[in-house]
């Protein structure tokens, strides 16, 4: 279930990025920190 939440958060952040041109990390990092540990989020989003 964690993967489903992760994919949904990334999808929402990607849609916001597409609509506004910025904001992927502003949305993805705080929401993903509710589901995953922070030491996994940073390498995942920086790759």
UniProtKB/TrEMBL annotation:
The chain crosses the membrane at residues 6-36. Keywords: Membrane, Transmembrane, Transmembrane helix. This is Sulfite exporter TauE/SafE family protein. It comes from Paenibacillus antibioticophila.
